[in-house]
Amino acid sequence: MGMHRDATNVEFDPIERNTRRQVWWSIYSFERILCSILGRPTVIDEREMSMQIPDAPMLEQKSMSAEFMTQAYEIARMSYTIRQRAYFDSNNAEERSPSLAMAESLLRECDTYAQTIPPSLSLNYLPTIPPEQKARILLLHVYYYYTRCIASRDFLVHKVERNITFLEGKDAPYSEELQRTLALSEDCVESAHQSLRCIMEGADLGMIGYSWLDLFFIFHSIMIVCADFLARPRSQHDMAKDVERKEMVRVMLNHIRGMKMAATYKILSKIAVQFAAITGVTEDQGPTPMYTGQAGGSRLDEKHAALGQDETAQTLVEISDIQEDWFANATSSLGLDFFELQEGPDSLPLHAEASTYPELYGQQPTAGEVDDWTARTLRGMHSL
């Protein structure tokens, strides 16, 4: 179709030309972000791309600007290239863990990108920005913080491994390399924390939804923040930033608790809740039982006591799904009670027999006759 090359748009009118540009860059951003999340190779060769940025004044969304689109497409491109350079070894086509020097270099690239963000798209200007623009700016920064996590999250794992080694009585000596590892780990956790703050600030703007923010970014940030508290020595007390991060995770988990999710995200939600409880970030062990204290609540409480925790959680999820089903919502206010239907003198009985209403069923064949259902079906109809 040639949508990746702007020269193919010469023959189109300005509206269609701009539409093709918008479609192409939407495909490009979606593909890059998805490849970054799944760790899959891209199928788009940037060396063959020559498509220009869409003309913002011609878009239906008047709040879009050329500055925003340029920054959004750039962060999608950078997120993928950083993941590829950090975790892919071009020499043997195998996955690898980034070195300290590589991770630090990639974070410097992120810093350089952040410096190119114009003041009108920075978080400092949010209070003065209209709501429809504010959600886009928050989303831009969520992608930015996620990209920082990509470059540094392996070193959070190294920190947890060191904590486990310390608890086993095999403490490693403090070194410059360890100091750099801890700095990268802290950068990863703080980036995840800032990402959650942006998401919560945009929650009231409808940013958490199918067309805006993928729930993956929420669970990714929650898991990273919780991992920072894994295998911590008991003698280590929470600092002010630790308390703030824990509270942010609790608020986010409570916010998404009642959301309708696909099966994959239901699994991620359960993992996030359990991991937060294991690491001591929350005291919650699972979903709050529904309908407790209501009609039928005692039966649910008895079942909750009889079943294991996992089975109870699954039962509650299934009940929640039934209550949120479109049929239950659509028929809840119809005012119909099918158990009170009565047979009036002029109504057809609910269980009508063929012998009672032969005009409805027609003459039934005897045991020795062949049942010609077509004749019975056409009986009473005019012949053509």
TrEMBL record:
<keyword id="KW-0804">Transcription</keyword>
<dbReference type="Pfam" id="PF04082">
    <property type="entry name" value="Fungal_trans"/>
</dbReference>
<dbReference type="GO" id="GO:0003677">
    <property type="term" value="F:DNA binding"/>
</dbReference>
<protein>
    <recommendedName>
        <fullName>Xylanolytic transcriptional activator regulatory domain-containing protein</fullName>
    </recommendedName>
</protein>
<dbReference type="InterPro" id="IPR007219">
    <property type="entry name" value="XnlR_reg_dom"/>
</dbReference>
<feature type="domain" description="Xylanolytic transcriptional activator regulatory">
    <location>
        <begin position="1"/>
        <end position="73"/>
    </location>
</feature>
<dbReference type="InterPro" id="IPR051127">
    <property type="entry name" value="Fungal_SecMet_Regulators"/>
</dbReference>
<keyword id="KW-0805">Transcription regulation</keyword>
<dbReference type="GO" id="GO:0008270">
    <property type="term" value="F:zinc ion binding"/>
</dbReference>
<keyword id="KW-0539">Nucleus</keyword>
<dbReference type="GO" id="GO:0006351">
    <property type="term" value="P:DNA-templated transcription"/>
</dbReference>
